[in-house]
Amino acid sequence: MLTCRRTKRWLWRWRANPLRRRDDVLEAWLVLALWTLVAVGGALAGVLTARAADDAFMQQRAERTPVTAVLLTDTPPAEATSYRAFAQVRWIGKDGSARTGRTLVNGGLKAGSTTVLWTDARGDLTTRPPSRTDAAVEAGLLAAASALAVSGIAFGVTGAARYWLDRRRIDEWGREWDLVGPRWGHKTG
């Protein structure tokens, strides 16, 4: 039974070899740059994105405040509206003035019911800020997405460069064959 031995040598593109071409060395540097960019650039993009997202979520939690609002209109039953429906509400702003607006509230509530809403620094209605856990999960997902985006761009650019190098090598082999091929034109017969 024959056994196969691995003939691949590590770092063969950097070793002295009479068959090594400049394009092989350039491709080796491209691959090294690619993996460095994926490892370092992807990690850096992920960390920076996670920090920026976490800062934005922390700022939202600091700026948004809950207020108690009174419904001015009835909302359809929860079964008909799939849990939430738009309703007219009234609340007291930070400056003490009565304000009204239209927002999503739980379905099935009657006019005069109270509900908790969130307002921003200006006193306008806004969404509830994400909890620390939700913010951490979303920041992690955004970080992973940005790391994958950097890696994808790096792979795409390197793939295009390697395609261009392959085309150059094929053209070079064609030119060399045009020089050598006629010498092998020995015909039998």
Walkthrough of the structure:
The chain starts with 21 loop residues before the first helix and ends in a 9-residue tail after the last helix. Among the domains are: 22-59 and 133-162; 65-128, no CATH class. A hairpin with a 5-residue loop joins β4 (114-119) and β5 (125-126). It has three helices and five strands. It is of the alpha+beta class and 189 residues long. 50% of the residues lie in helices and 17% in strands. This is Integral membrane protein.
Give a nutshell description of this structure:
The protein has 3 helices and 5 strands; from the N terminus they run H-E-H-E-E-E-E-H.
Number of strands: 5
User: What is the subunit arrangement here?
Assistant: single chain
How many helix segments?
3
Shape: rod-shaped
Helix/strand structural class:
alpha+beta
| Secondary-structure element series | HEHEEEEH
Distance between the termini: 42 Å
Mean pLDDT reading: 87
Tell me the strand percentage band: 15-25%
What labels describe this entry?
single chain; 189 residues; alpha+beta; 5-stranded antiparallel β-sheet; 5 strands; transmembrane helix; transmembrane; membrane
Annotate the secondary structure layout.
Blueprint: H1 22-63, E1 65-71, H2 78-81, E2 84-92, E3 98-106, E4 114-119, E5 125-126, H3 132-180
Antiparallel strand pairs: 1-2, 1-4, 2-3, 4-5
Helix pairs in contact: 1-3
